[in-house]
Amino acid sequence: MIRHFLSQNDLSRDEVIQVLDLAASLRSSPISDRLRGRSMVMFFEKTSTRTRLSFEIGMTQLGGHAVHLDRNSSQLSRGESIRDTALVVSRYADIIMGRVESHETLVELSRFASIPVINGLSDTEHPMQSMGDLLTIRDARGKFDNLKIAYVGDGDNNVTHSLMLACSRVGASIAIAAPEELAPDPAFAEMASRNAEDSGGSVIVTTDPLAAARDADVVYTDVWISMGREAERERRTRLLGPYQVNASLMAAAKSEAIFMHCLPQHVGDEVTDDVAYGPQSVIFDQAENRLHVQKAMVLFLLGGAESHG
């Protein structure tokens, strides 16, 4: 059966751990020929640094090949349908990664493709980011049980949604602090709460950043103005000003707490310089882990995870 990874909830807890374990192994032995002769088509509707580099370099390190495709340089610019694109790409490649404007584009790709489809970012979720986040958290803390992750800032974005699903899936507790106007989508909050019921974690949504950060093991934030929301800059800056991650907020967390950010960051807005580049920051470890966990996910979806070890 073809497996797709469009949402963080597409993996069970055991499968999440399996992919993380494989990612850790690939990090220590990055070069192999496990995907020799295999190809990925990377479909981009949005700009990218980490997603393109990590997938393309990851395929090369596994002996495979990645091809960049976008609307403007493909027949999609002349009206070819997503359905036909999915059917054609399936005849050429082994796996598709899409970084798209609308999540429905990924759903349509997966509906007609006869090969796996990975969500490299959509307007509702960013599950490869949350998988890399889990690997980073486990590297720093060695576990997920009894951990508290505090997310402070814009709660209504793709990173927050996938992070909520990821943490609640593996048994961690997550506290989201955001203005009421930028609270997480209730549908994702409900899904995360159901995950937590099964895993023993918890999900809290609050407007109080200090309450979220208090005794946290991880403090996480994201940009205030996500891609496609530039017109809301003034409103978002006003609403999110009290949610800046600075030394005062970090002091509310545990002394050994780590600071995380999915990047790109706007230092001086959502985070101060001393936190972003300070001793508690793991943001560049976090960025690197995208490479390892995405390689693991490709192998998992193509059936290559079983040969690990």
Structural commentary:
It is globular, with a radius of gyration of 19 Å. Helices cover 43% and strands 15% of the residues. The chain has two domains: 8-126 and 289-307, Aspartate/ornithine carbamoyltransferase (Rossmann fold), CATH 3.40.50.1370; 130-287, Aspartate/ornithine carbamoyltransferase (Rossmann fold, 3-Layer(aba) Sandwich), CATH 3.40.50. It contains twelve helices and nine strands. The protein is of the alpha/beta class. The protein starts with 12 loop residues before the first helix and ends in an 8-residue tail after the last helix.
Question: What's the SSE blueprint?
Answer:
Blueprint: H1 13-28, E1 39-44, H2 50-61, E2 65-70, H3 82-92, E3 95-99, H4 103-112, E4 117-121, H5 127-141, E5 148-152, H6 158-169, E6 173-177, H7 186-199, E7 202-206, H8 209-213, E8 218-221, H9 233-240, H10 247-252, E9 258-261, H11 273-276, H12 283-301
Parallel strand pairs: 1-2, 1-3, 3-4, 5-6, 5-8, 6-7, 8-9
Helix pairs in contact: 1-5, 1-12, 2-12, 3-4, 5-6, 5-12, 6-7
Number of strands: 9
Share of β-strand residues? 5-15%
CATH fold field value of the largest domain: Rossmann fold
Terminal CA distance: 24 Å
Which CATH C-level class of the largest domain is it? Alpha Beta
Approximate shape: globular
CATH superfamily of the largest domain: Aspartate/ornithine carbamoyltransferase
The structural class is alpha/beta
**Approximately how much helix is present in the residues?**
40-55%
How do the helices and strands follow one another from N- to C-terminus? Answer: HEHEHEHEHEHEHEHEHHEHH
Largest sheet: 5 strands, parallel
Q: Taking strands numbered 1, 2, ... along the chain, how are they ordered across the largest sheet?
A: 7-6-5-8-9
CATH A-level architecture of the largest domain = 3-Layer(aba) Sandwich
